[in-house]
Q: What sequence folds into this?
């Protein structure tokens, strides 16, 4: 940067005349920052403009960075992994006549419902009519869920017994 450009820059930043800017730069051996400090110590800088001065280049407004997207994806997959881990700790137990037939993690049931909904739901309902009972066990499972499942099994049992034709006794 030549001396003329330096004087113009200081004149704009400090809001002083050309002569004052040139004198300040000559006094500070053509160092812009020292010239600003010198002008400020002389009380010649007009402080009506609210500006800041720096020797760094001004940064352009930042566009969304790739790391923000990576951070969001990372948080999403972390949340998903935590959710799957919790679902693996909760089990669905299927029993008949008080004996456990099988148990599977909640995450497996969710996957089955996603991919085979029209096969799993009717099978579960039909299972109720064949005396199967379902129970969910694990951390954070409310007992009211199991009470509702017991009521559904009892309702299926009462429908089954009510649907039987009465036997003719001759």
A:
């Amino acid at each position: 940067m030549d001396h003329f450009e330096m004087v113009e820059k200081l004149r704009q930043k400090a809001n002083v005349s050309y002569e004052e800017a040139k004198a300040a730069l000559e006094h500070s051996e053509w160092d812009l920052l020292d010239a600003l400090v010198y002008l400020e110590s002389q009380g010649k800088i007009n402080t009506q403009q609210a500006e800041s001065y720096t020797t760094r280049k001004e940064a352009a407004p930042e566009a969304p960075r790739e790391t923000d997207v990576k951070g969001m994806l990372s948080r999403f997959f972390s949340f998903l992994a935590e959710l799957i881990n919790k679902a693996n700790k909760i089990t669905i137990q299927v029993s008949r006549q008080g004996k456990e037939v099988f148990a599977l993690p909640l995450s497996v049931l969710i996957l089955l419902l996603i991919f085979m909904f029209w096969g799993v739901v009717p099978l579960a309902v039909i299972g109720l009519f064949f005396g199967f009972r379902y129970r969910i066990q694990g951390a954070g499972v409310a007992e009211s869920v199991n009470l509702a499942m017991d009521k559904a099994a009892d309702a299926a049992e009462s429908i089954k017994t009510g649907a039987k034709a009465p036997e003719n006794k001759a």
